[in-house]
Amino acid sequence: MFDLVKELTGAFGVAGNEENIREVIKNKIQNVLDEVYVDTLGNLIGVKRGNGKKIMVAAHMDEIGVMANFIDEKGYIRFSSIGWVSPFYALGQKVKFKNGTIGAVFYEEKLDEMKNLKLSKMYIDIGAASRAEAEKKVSIGDTAAFVGEAVQEGDMIISKALDDRSGCAVVIETIKNLPKTENEIYFVFTVQEELGLRGAKTAAYGIKPDIAIAVDVTLTGDKPESKPMEVKCGAGPAIKIKDRSVICHPEIKKLLEDCAKRLNIPYQFEILEEGGSDPGAIHLTAGGIPSGAISIPCRYVHSPVETANINDLKHAVMLLRESLV
Ligand code: CO
Ligand code: ZN
Q: Which residues of the chain are under the pLDDT cut of 70?
């Protein structure tokens, strides 16, 4: 499981530029499923045919990042964010453009108070001596992802882009160990979730499933002085009750809870006060689709050191598999 997570998190896939990660995932699923295709927006969809219920499983393959929007005379690059990027998480980090160019992210020294740190006061230094030199490597509109190679420390994985490559890993492992079922299952690796659940919206409309289950990360309340939240790393996958984009359908919540009980695996409930996820778009599509989610507890979400427990991922695979039968 760790090797798969490491490979997936290492692939490039800033929202809107998912070609690289899509190719990596496609190679892993295309000989296992009945059909694999890419839709207009770039969602990767793998189908297991059947005559039963139509189930959509969604995990987003995009990650947050930055986009070059201005290059000054000295070759320093100003940037805007793709998805929610905290200036504090970005400070002192490395970013990597699609062509491999790496830059240091830093801030204007004149800034008097750290609390005034904004992305607009920051820049990327790719070691270029002039605008012309910088433009040989980076063009306006190019995107870059944070650098943060996956490592395992005990049961914890620390990496960039666990949001949501850990969910992609759970779905890929499920595809490789499909249960016997008559259900028709659409495994969708969605694009542009970080920009507002965009890929999931068109994919769900195109598929019109009977139900949908997403796999994504969620925040936790288990860090020093955390905001109160029930979810903890290592206490099992979380069954989503709500976030800011959706109140999960009671039948899907019950389905997942019944499955977890049957499997006798640890599980917890998620009420997320900040942020949305793919079910937010899916449940409002095509006349309404009963939707829910399996969430992987993850600390420091949207930083290059996202941290999750590998056992939660393994239990999430068991839970997803059982829910498809
Ligand atoms: Co996210
Ligand atoms: Zn996510």
A: none
Which is nearest to 63 in space by CA: 24, 27, 106, 35? 24
pLDDT at 103: 98
* Amino acid sitting at position 158: I
* Of 145, 80, 152, the residue nearest 309 (C-alpha): 152
What gap in Å lies between CA 1 and CA 21, rounded to an integer? Answer: 17
How much is the pLDDT for 182? Answer: 97
Q: Is 301 exposed, middle or buried (0-12, 13-18, 19+ CB in 10 A)?
A: buried
- The boundaries of every CATH 3.40.630.10 domain in the chain are 2-63+160-323
With tokens 């997570």, the residue in question is 5
- Asked: is 2-63+160-323 a CATH 3.30.465.60 domain? The reply is no
* Rounded distance from Cα 189 to ligand 1 centre (Å): 14
pTM of model > 0.90: yes
From ligand 2's centre to the CA of 198, what distance in Å?
A: 12
63, 173, 184, 193: the active-site residue: 193
Topology, domain 65-146: Elongation Factor Tu (Ef-tu); domain 3 (2.40.30)
